Amino acid sequence: MTAANGLIVAAMALLFLAFGYLGVPVAFALMAGVIIGTLFTPVSLPSIMTQLFNGIDAEALMAIPFFLLVGELMTSANVVVRIAELSQAMVGHIRGGLAQVVTVFSMFFSGMSGSSSADVAVLSRTMARPMAQEGYDPAFVAALIAAGEATGLNWRIRAATGARQKIQTYAAAMRAISGRMAPLYLVLRDAAAQAPELARIRDEIALRRAANMRLFAQDLIATGELRPELDVGEVADIVWSMNSAEFYSLLVQERAWLPQRFEQWLADAWCRLFLIESA
Q1: Is the pTM higher than 0.90?
Q2: Domains along the chain?
Q3: Residue 41 binned pLDDT confidence (cut-offs 50, 70, 90)
Q4: Where are the alpha helices (DSSP H) in the chain?
């Protein structure tokens, strides 16, 4: 970077901070800083406008306002409270009823939101405080909410029609989960070599992953759409290996794949490996 380019970048940063200090919204402060700074470069103003338009010309961005709209509709209709009351009426009378309510609530809400992050956020805001007031341990509450989100995922997979849709649903969920958990698991794996307690946690996670992969394999085989020479163990092992934190990190972090590309490739690879129609 030359001295002139460095001064321009510094000027952009200072303008952004100045506009932000004056109360200008962050988006407009960023735009103003970049546009004013770019005026001192050979880049033309029409070219800047074209790049700005290309940056927002994506159909996926339409999901943002619609997701916010759904949130407002659910808030105005008091949907979250009604789901919680329904869950309470169904399982609240059972021993440990509030913990049971979290699981049932997650099953209902995950089918509506379709987002694991949204499920965890809503469960944390609506159920964590009542459980704390009832004397539940915070670590137990966090583990229960995480498990409830996984229960919602299992419900969405089982509700999917056909093996291909089940695979696509699972691959989408794994992309979201691996983006958050893969780096943490790799740190845990490396630390486990020096700490026996962490090694036990790592081994427990591995056993649970293997058990979940087997359930997913059984669900796929039950559709009757898989190649006849495949059994539950082989399908589970293939899913387990290709769904590992190491595999995700190799492609997304070291080979710079986009997470969306990883999701699409994973679903396509499993369909080619498992389904009769792709054989």
Answers
A1: no
A2: 3-57 (no CATH), 61-159 (no CATH), 162-279 (1.10.357.10)
A3: confident
A4: 3-21, 26-38, 45-56, 63-76, 79-91, 97-113, 116-133, 138-159, 163-192, 196-221, 232-242, 245-248, 259-274
